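[recover] target loaded
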């Protein structure tokens, strides 16, 4: 057999790669053409081809869609729009007129609704930017049994963190009240609501005859965390009528109309100031009661009086109006609607008198009636006026009326009267 032509193999070496490359180019071109044919069969793209020029940059344009946002198999929310635009890059989804959004908790139960004029969804960040007069309705919250409505100009919904944030002044409304806050954060998983620098006004129907009257309770704070059963508040200021309570920290159970305050706290109204370490307030209409404990101080303030006419001396009656009564005890229970306070445990009350005199009273129990301007001391009562008198009794009724500093001892007393020889009276006939 003759040897093959030696030029055949070199030619095959350089023609074979060329054929392979040509074949790859042909297959790739065929594949791209097939994909384009498939894309032309896409009904969304056929609709988009007929869309106006300002919508040509979109991947999808949907009218009146309903979307379900999910975390795995668990639904986060269902949203209904008038129109939805998805860019070709799929980074931004723009929605017009969010007619209704239903939000769900971890068990799939509805916890709130929302609506707004405009929604921008950042797909990579999984974050919704909601603007255009958004309204958020929270079904479960500690402020009452009726839904809480949040009115703001802009809010942000982070799907990864499952929380909604509002970082600008916002109005809150519910059946029994309204308020304004500076910022809000709602954790959808736990239901916890955090508020910053807010002021609330709570109203409640009074138990009266027709027509029904209402009273309002103003509540302000520096920051608050609203949980399912209570609100954890810092920098609390609660005003109910003419009574004001302030505290560094408080737990407010608004459904029970109850607040527990600790730290530096104070309770005051026009005629009385009280301080303590622990304060409990029941502000339901049938209670209106405050309980102060641990190192309690109370000051019964004098009435405000007009200064005397220039050049005229101030009478003893007018002087007495300026003097307060300072008391300390272990506990004070104050019914601030009736203006009656009950003092208990190691009571010491110091009453300022005209001409620089003082009267100190000690007792186990006491009752202060603001309307009657009367302080009733019970138990082992001691009355001490330095250099004048010291008495012990079981009951003492001290009048706090302007210029009438009388003390009644209905059960008698025993004690000592102090006097100096210079004070002994000389009989009219000059004989001792």
């Amino acid at each position: 057999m003759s040897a093959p032509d030696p030029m055949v193999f070199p030619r095959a070496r350089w023609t074979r790669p060329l054929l392979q490359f040509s074949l790859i180019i042909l297959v790739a071109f065929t594949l791209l053409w097939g994909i384009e044919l498939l894309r032309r069969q896409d009904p969304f793209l056929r609709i988009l081809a007929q869309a106006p020029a300002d919508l040509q940059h979109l991947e999808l344009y949907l009218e009146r869609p309903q979307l379900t946002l999910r975390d795995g198999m668990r639904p986060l929310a269902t949203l209904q729009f008038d129109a939805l635009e998805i860019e070709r890059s799929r980074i931004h989804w723009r929605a017009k007129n969010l007619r209704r959004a239903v939000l769900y908790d971890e068990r799939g139960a509805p916890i709130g609704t929302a609506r707004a004029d405009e929604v921008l969804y950042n797909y990579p960040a999984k974050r919704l930017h909601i603007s255009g007069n958004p309204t958020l309705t929270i079904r479960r919250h500690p402020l009452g049994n009726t839904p809480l409505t949040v009115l703001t100009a802009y809010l942000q919904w982070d799907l990864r963190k499952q929380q909604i944030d509002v970082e600008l002044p916002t109005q809150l409304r519910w059946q029994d009240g309204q308020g304004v806050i500076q910022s809000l954060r709602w954790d959808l998983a736990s239901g916890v609501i955090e508020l910053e620098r807010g002021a609330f006004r709570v109203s409640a129907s009074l138990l009266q005859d027709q027509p029904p009257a209402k009273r309002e309770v103003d509540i302000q704070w520096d920051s608050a965390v609203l949980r399912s059963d209570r609100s954890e508040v810092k920098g609390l200021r609660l005003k109910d009528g003419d009574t004001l309570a302030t505290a560094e920290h408080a737990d407010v159970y608004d459904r029970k109309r109850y607040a527990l305050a600790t730290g530096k706290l104070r309770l005051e109204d026009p005629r009385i100031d009280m301080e303590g370490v622990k304060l409990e307030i029941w502000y339901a209409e049938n209670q209106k009661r405050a309980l102060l404990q641990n190192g309690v101080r109370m000051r019964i303030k004098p009435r405000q009086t007009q200064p005397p006419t220039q050049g005229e001396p101030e009478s003893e009656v007018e002087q007495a109006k300026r003097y307060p009564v300072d008391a300390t005890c272990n506990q004070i229970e104050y019914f601030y609607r009736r203006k009656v306070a009950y003092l208990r445990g190691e009571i010491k009350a110091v009453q300022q008198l005209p001409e620089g005199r003082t009267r100190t009273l000690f007792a186990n129990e006491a009752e202060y009636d603001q309307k009657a301007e009367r302080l009733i001391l019970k138990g082992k009562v001691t009355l001490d006026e330095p250099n004048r008198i010291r008495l012990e009794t079981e009951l003492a009724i001290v009048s706090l009326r302007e210029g009438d500093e009388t003390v009644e001892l209905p059960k008698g007393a025993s004690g000592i009267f102090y006097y100096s020889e210079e004070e002994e009276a000389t009989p009219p006939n000059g004989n001792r």
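[recover] notes: Residues 41-48, 205-212, 314-318 have pLDDT under 50 and may be disordered.
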